Amino acid sequence: MSIPSILPDEKVFAEFKDRCLSTDNWLKKYDKNDMQVWVEHVPAKKGNSPPKIHTIKCKMTIKDVSAASMYDVLHDGHYRRKWDPTMVESYDIARLSANADVGYYSWKCPKTITNRDVVTLRSWHVTNDEYIIVNFSVKHPKYPPRHDLVRAVSLITGYYIKSTGPKSCTFLYLSQADPKGYLPKWLVNKASQVLAPKVLKCVHRAGQNYPEWKQQNSPDQKPWLYPEQNTLPMMDPAELSIQRADSLENVDESSKMDPQDSEDSS
């Protein structure tokens, strides 16, 4: 009996796209300046309680950057150092296939809250006018949780970008992620709704500036489009396993919480 691969297949990308475009069971929380934010409302079923961590979806209508440029921004790790103000450390660890890799990312948290990190399997799918990136947390044997950071968990996070013209696109971000620690779940959910529009505005600005930056920084080097350029070591996906949130130790940060942090987390 063969073991199913951890790598996403066509069905995963199709289901992710459907969730991005679906309007069923989504409650709108924000609608301003060509941007909308929704939170998924999962109908209660007998014996099943709704998830404690919301799934959030953010849509941005972009009128001055191509879908291809926005897609490149999300992949280009060297450029991310220029535009991501919360990033502490980010690097790709290994290739898993022509359209999948495993990587590490850590970020700053507000005030006295411990910084977070995550190890994720990222996979991507491109057609003529659509770009999809999905990631989820995995356990890597050489990158266990660190004592100085809280290991967060991405249950599903990704982007769906649809071209609407030579210099325009629809940009969707969807995420269900648990920052772990003993942060109140209501605070996590509230902060994510406030944070998402600000993060996407930052990504949009990065897209506006990317073509000029890339022209000066290895303009022909795009291993996410041209796998033959990828110099990362190959890794067997079977060495990875899905990171479950409940298998990670919670760090009690409730004593560090300031009532204002629900806004400062934005």
Topology record:
Blueprint: H1 10-21, E1 26-32, E2 35-40, E3 56-62, H2 67-75, H3 77-83, E4 87-97, E5 100-107, E6 116-126, E7 130-139, E8 150-151, E9 153-165, E10 168-178, H4 185-215, E11 241-242, H5 261-264
Parallel strand pairs: 6-8
Antiparallel strand pairs: 1-2, 2-3, 3-10, 4-5, 5-6, 6-7, 7-9, 7-11, 9-10
Helix pairs in contact: 2-4
Which architecture name does CATH use?
2-Layer Sandwich
Helix content: 10-25%
Number of separate strands: 11
- Radius of gyration equals 18 Å
The helix count comes to 5
- What is the CATH class name? Alpha Beta
Shape: globular
CATH fold-level topology: Alpha-D-Glucose-1,6-Bisphosphate, Chain A, domain 4
Judged by helices, strands and strand pairing, the structural class is alpha+beta
Pfam family, one: START
Domain START: 22-212
Region (Disordered): 211-266
Keywords: Acetylation, Cell projection, Cilium, Cytoplasm, Flagellum, Lipid transport, Lipid-binding, Membrane, Phosphoprotein, Transport
Describe what this molecule looks like in 3D.
The chain has 266 residues and is an alpha+beta fold. The chain has a single domain, classed as START domain (Alpha-D-Glucose-1,6-Bisphosphate, Chain A, domain 4), CATH 3.30.530. Helices cover 24% and strands 33% of the residues. The chain contains five helices and eleven strands. The protein has helices spanning 10-21, 67-75, 77-83, 185-215, 261-264; strands at 26-32, 35-40, 56-62, 87-97, 100-107, 116-126, 130-139, 150-151, 153-165, 168-178, 241-242. Strands 1, 2, 3, 4, 5, 6, 7, 8, 9, 10 and 11 form an eleven-stranded mixed beta sheet that branches. β6 (116-126) and β7 form a beta hairpin. Mean pLDDT is 87; it is low at 252-266. It comes from Cynoglossus semilaevis (Tongue sole). Keywords: Acetylation, Cell projection, Cilium, Cytoplasm, Flagellum, Lipid transport, Lipid-binding, Membrane, Phosphoprotein, Transport.
